[in-house]
Automatic annotation (TrEMBL):
One annotated GO molecular function: flavin adenine dinucleotide binding
Domain annotation Acyl-CoA oxidase/dehydrogenase middle: ranges: 121-219
Name the record gives this protein: Alkylation response protein AidB-like acyl-CoA dehydrogenase
Upper classification of the organism: Bacteria, Bacillati, Actinomycetota, Actinomycetes, Micrococcales
Names of required cofactors: FAD
PROSITE patterns: ACYL_COA_DH_1, ACYL_COA_DH_2
Pfam family, one: Acyl-CoA_dh_M
InterPro entries, alphabetized: Acyl-CoA_DH_CS, Acyl-CoA_Oxase/DH_mid-dom, Acyl-CoA_Oxase/DH_mid-dom_sf, AcylCo_DH-like_C, AcylCo_DH/oxidase_C, AcylCoA_DH/ox_N, AcylCoA_DH/ox_N_sf, AcylCoA_DH/oxidase_NM_dom_sf
Record domain Acyl-CoA dehydrogenase/oxidase N-terminal: where: 5-116
Natural source organism: Oryzihumus leptocrescens
The entry's keywords: FAD, Flavoprotein, Oxidoreductase
Length: 391
């Protein structure tokens, strides 16, 4: 059965110490300023966070997926923006190249990405193609030895930082025999003519995370920038999202844990009617509910991560991991949203004030139910995994 090893817990302590020292003192200001701390990324790289699942030949630690989830949870406990920077940097930036890239592509891009000297992004979502990723409108055609890309992407994390080196984008490159769109993944280096990073979004939360729309107008890249085989992009991003759902679940666990800790502490020290508010069952029961949410979310998340690691060793099936990932993502993210509402309620009027962290927690939570597949999509995946009929 799955469990976190002593090495995992020792690693958790290291990441927590880093987060408390390098993130916690600054995050309130970064959040207010909508500032992406690019100077933090190399420090995360020095700690080995971006290279956790990468092979040693590219500077990585060749660790298990569970270790990555531990790191994401601990960063997310202090701040969700920094947690998603790591989650997207590895899951959407590094892993597609690591999994599907040629040896030449890996040698070109991975060393800097693994070291935290650069970031990569994955351009899937479009203004009119989110959950319906098969409706991709971005197109790429071969012109001699170059792909010519035209289209637009939306809500792309880590795509416009001053250290972003490459964005992998999905595009229609033809039609399949059944008439469906042939989707391929193509790597577009930052600064390529015809590739424009749109102004940063004004978001509800994740203010210290980098998020942009992207546009491509006759953007030309070498034919060798195709990631994997032509037409394999759809399968590639489905696999990428399956892994990403476990990572987002870990991010949600971190947020729920933060809510539990802050609400517990506040309930012990906030006085009303001459006694701590935690004396009142109306408060203590809510904090108890937070503890249950955290425990359940963490268990589901690390079960899914364990299954992912077991799959790597050939001991579990893709279907098992897919189902566990969807279950973990659905429960953990909805629990995190509920946890921020409860924590804010425990803080009362202070919870509505930006000087208290629960206000930031509340703003940051909602996207967890949307990104990497909405809650509705997770329910659809789970239902299919149960063998329920589809239309």
């Amino acid at each position: 059965m799955f469990e976190l090893s002593k090495d995992h817990e020792d690693f958790r302590a290291v990441v927590r110490e880093f987060a408390e020292a390098e993130v916690a003192p600054h995050i309130a200001q970064w959040d207010r300023d909508h500032y992406f701390p690019s100077e933090l990324v190399p420090k995360m790289g020095e700690l080995g966070l971006f290279g956790l699942v990468a092979p040693e030949e590219f500077g990585g630690a060749d660790a298990d997926f569970t270790s990555l989830c531990v790191a994401i949870e601990e960063l997310g406990r202090v701040d969700q923006s920094i947690g998603i920077t790591l989650s997207a940097g590895v899951g959407l930036g590094i892993n597609p190249i690591l999994t599907y890239g040629s040896q030449e592509q890996k040698e070109r891009w991975l060393p800097d990405l693994v070291a935290g000297r650069a970031l990569a992004a994955f351009g899937l979502t479009e203004p009119e193609a989110g959950s319906d990723a098969g409706a991709t409108r971005t197109r790429a055609r071969l012109d001699g030895e170059e792909w010519v890309i035209s289209g637009a992407k939306a809500f792309i994390t880590n795509s416009g930082t001053d250290i972003t080196s490459v964005v992998t984008v999905t595009a229609r490159t033809g039609e399949n025999p059944d008439g469906s769109a042939q989707i391929s993944a193509i790597m577009v280096p930052s600064g390529t003519p015809g590739f424009t990073v749109e102004p940063a979004y004004d978001k509800l939360g994740w203010h210290a995370s980098d998020t942009h729309g992207l546009s491509f107008d006759g953007c030309r890249v070498p034919a060798g920038n195709l990631l994997g085989e032509q037409g394999s992009g759809f399968k590639q991003f489905l696999k990428t999202l399956d892994d990403g759902r476990i990572a987002i679940s870990a991010l949600a666990v971190g947020l729920a844990q933060a809510c539990l800790e802050t609400a517990t502490s506040y309930s012990k020290t906030r006085m009303a009617f001459g006694r701590p508010i935690g004396v009142n069952q109306g408060v203590s029961f809510q904090v108890a509910d937070l503890a249950v949410m955290v425990e359940a979310a963490r268990t589901l998340t690390y079960k899914a991560a364990w299954l992912k690691d077991e799959l790597h060793h050939g001991r579990r099936s893709v279907a098992e991991v897919k189902q566990a990932a969807a279950i973990a993502k659905l429960y953990s993210t909805e629990a995190a949203v509920s946890a921020t509402r409860i924590a804010t309620q425990v803080f009362g009027g202070n919870g509505f004030m930006e000087e208290f962290p629960v206000a930031r927690f509340y703003r940051d939570a909602k996207i967890l139910e949307i990104g990497e597949g909405t809650s509705e999509v997770q329910r659809m995946v789970i239902a299919r995994g149960l063998g329920l009929p589809t239309s």
